[in-house]
């Protein structure tokens, strides 16, 4: 996979939405989807749809569209969602617990197999079928479980320490929900999710009629 493809973040962020629509169409018995249908659903231009889907390596049939099953398979393969990756989550507070309770991850190739917290009242409990372990055992259990993905849901002041422990445990990718930039080795991938960033876009859109922000 080329770096050019990986850098197309807006396209990659749209792919799960395409996938959701396609799966719903397949469930209803449809086998073909035309570009205008997806463009209308996504509220974007048909050219953008074609460019988005081309990143997966699939091409539609002119005048007909895409075979839904083939397109679903292509998107899942591109996103590596046709295989299951195991992960651990650190920080079983409100956000962490909500993430543990989200039922859609396994459909998207992610399975959270353990969670960690520093709160003694949470350690040893089970949240959404996931046992909570002491954060002091994070590196040890990451090595034992051989997980490659760590999810950080702790307050910002503690995020770097957690990241260090995840790296020490052999994790190769971190999904960071703490509002802080992490320092990790070049070999470790960090995807930072800043909830306030989405709110900022919403606020600008709400208060301005002159912005075209997608």
Features:
single chain; 214 residues; alpha/beta; Arc Repressor Mutant, subunit A; Rossmann fold; 7-stranded mixed sheet; two-stranded antiparallel ribbon; 9 helices; 9 strands; 43% helix; 17% strand; elongated
Describe this structure in words.
The chain has 214 residues and is of the alpha/beta class. The protein has two domains: 3-78, Winged helix-like DNA-binding domain superfamily/Winged helix DNA-binding domain (Arc Repressor Mutant, subunit A, Orthogonal Bundle), CATH 1.10.10; 85-196, 3-Layer(aba) Sandwich (Rossmann fold), CATH 3.40.50. It is built from nine helices and nine strands. It has helices at residues 3-6, 9-27, 35-42, 46-54, 68-78, 94-100, 138-145, 156-168, 195-207, and strands at 32-33, 66-67, 85-90, 110-117, 126-127, 130-134, 149-152, 173-176, 189-192. It has a seven-stranded mixed β-sheet with strand order 5-6-4-3-7-8-9. α2 packs antiparallel against α5 (68-78), α3 crosses α4 and α7 packs across α8. The longest helix is centred in the first third of the chain and has 19 residues, at 9-27. It is elongated. The model is unreliable at 1-6 (pLDDT under 50).
């Amino acid at each position: 996979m080329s770096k050019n493809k990986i850098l197309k973040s807006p396209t990659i962020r749209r792919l799960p939405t395409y996938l959701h629509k396609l799966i719903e169409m397949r469930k209803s018995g449809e086998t073909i989807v035309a570009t205008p249908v997806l463009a209308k659903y996504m509220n974007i231009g048909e050219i953008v749809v074609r460019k988005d889907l081309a990143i997966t390596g699939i091409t539609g049939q002119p005048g007909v569209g895409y075979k839904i099953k083939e397109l679903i398979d292509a998107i899942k393969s591109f996103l590596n969602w046709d295989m299951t990756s195991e992960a651990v989550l650190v920080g079983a507070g409100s956000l962490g617990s909500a993430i543990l309770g989200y039922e859609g991850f396994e459909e998207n190739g992610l399975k959270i197999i353990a969670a960690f917290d520093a709160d003694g009242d949470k350690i040893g409990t089970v949240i959404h079928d996931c046992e909570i372990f002491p954060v002091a055992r994070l590196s040890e259990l990451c090595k034992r479980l051989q997980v490659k993905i760590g999810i950080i849901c702790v307050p910002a002041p503690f995020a770097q320490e957690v990241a260090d422990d995840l790296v020490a445990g052999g994790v190769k990718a971190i999904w960071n929900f703490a509002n802080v930039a992490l320092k990790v080795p070049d070999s470790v991938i960090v995807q930072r999710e800043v909830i306030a960033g989405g709110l900022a876009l919403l606020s600008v859109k709400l208060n301005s009629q002159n912005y075209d922000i997608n």
